[in-house]
From TrEMBL:
Transmembrane segments: 38-58, 78-98, 105-124, 175-200, 221-242, 262-282, 289-312, 332-352, 387-411, 431-456
Protein name: Permease IIC component
Main location: membrane
Pfam family, one: PTS_EIIC
Function recorded in the entry: The phosphoenolpyruvate-dependent sugar phosphotransferase system (PTS), a major carbohydrate active -transport system, catalyzes the phosphorylation of incoming sugar substrates concomitant with their translocation across the cell membrane.
Compartments, record wording: Cell membrane
Domain PTS EIIC type-3: 13-456
Keywords: Cell membrane, Membrane, Sugar transport, Transmembrane, Transmembrane helix, Transport
Entry superkingdom: Bacteria
PANTHER family, A to Z: PTHR33989, PTS SYSTEM N,N'-DIACETYLCHITOBIOSE-SPECIFIC EIIC COMPONENT
Organism: Lactiplantibacillus nangangensis
Membrane topology of this protein: Multi-pass membrane protein
Amino acid sequence: MENTKKSGFGEFVNNKLMPPIMKFVNTKAIKALQDGMIYSLPFIIIGSVFLILSNIPIPSVAAWLTATGWSAFFTQAYTATFGVLSIWAVVGMAYVYVRNEGYEALPAGLTSLATFFLIQMMNIDNPIKGLMSSGVTNSAGKMVLTGKAVTANIDKLPHALQGVMTAPVTGVFNITWLGGQGMVGAIIVGLLVGWSYSAMIRKGWKITLPEQVPASVAKQFTAMIPAGIIITVAMFIFAIFSHFNTDLLQYVYNLLELPMQGLSDSLGGAIVIGFAVSFFWFFGVHGGLIVGTIAGVFLMPNTAANAALYHAGKLSLANGAHIVTNEFYNNFINLTGSGITIGLVIFALFAAKSAQVKTLGKIELVPAIFNINEPFLFGLPLVMNPLLAIPFFLTPVVIAISTYLVIYFGIVPPLNGVAAPWTTPAVVSGFLIGGWKMAIWQACTLLISTGIYFPFAKKYDALLLKQENAKEAAKAADGETVDAQ
């Protein structure tokens, strides 16, 4: 009866639950989102290196870097890579969408970029307004003029001059909206441009030149009508929002991105993400791919926001830092592989008695160091294995909860926004994304994994050993029978 129930539940998941999920994951938009975001990965990692260099946590070294000007150079490199994350996303998603449709893709990516620029106000607040609240400091960080004093002096100027000094600076791009805060807007623009551009090309809305015209030139004319229509529509959208003294990116940020960030950056969000990865993998579906694609939309802006706070020297929960970021997902929930299976590796190497577990433990050791555990997922297996399902589901949930709480209660600092590649070994990644305290906590999570997996692995190993001994006994009995004959 128990096996029937398990089989029935497995059939329900595979036949009823998984098909609509996989259909959603394989839609054109989600594929473009997933593959388009990959183009930003090199810039995120490179920018993370410069983010670390511009914020060396050694006062004497940091002071020397500031005095010599190198800190400013590192900041420039960070801003031009990680700091404009939304640019890479908006180009990449439109490019991939149109490429997957079989058309010339680069013009679509560039059209998407132009649209993204067009729908935002090209201005920033005047720096003087900031000084009126924060005051003026010297190179050593000492206050030389309070905000109140700055305001008092400005008030002495003629009103016309006051207006000029406090008016927004126009004709510039606002870096805020090119980074994490513009990410959801970039996703919407990238996907809509990719879809509409492909649809117009498919319907033949293009300028066709004679065959004598070089192909490189003809392709650009092919893009002219779709690009022109998209940009014209974007201009009208900008005009409508300008009437209300805002723009589409700010509207999307307040309407969608802030609530989504709040939803993902919660204990409940951490639990759902931690459980979902193992849940999908248990039924043989790539949980990391599904959850990473969907959750990344919410978590990447959290990472970018923390990086900006870290760069400004204001990384704290009180200043709005996020607990659940993309690195929380990559370097904790998926540490040593989906299900955080390092506990199984340790058991296999030091306590296993069955040949199957001991052999797979040796095979899995090196991949586990780099957060890969397919040998266990399909070889042990963990997929559709009810005997190991509880620790496989439980471990990432426990670590998600405990990691959330140690950050929430200030035991370790928030993640600093540095994007360590997901293959970075444990403890090393912890140091990069949160300093020595996070490295120690990451080591603790490895012990938690071991403690959860050990009793279940012991029972499963004993079962395998019994089966292996039975096979050996059967072989021996067959051999004796042959000899007797």
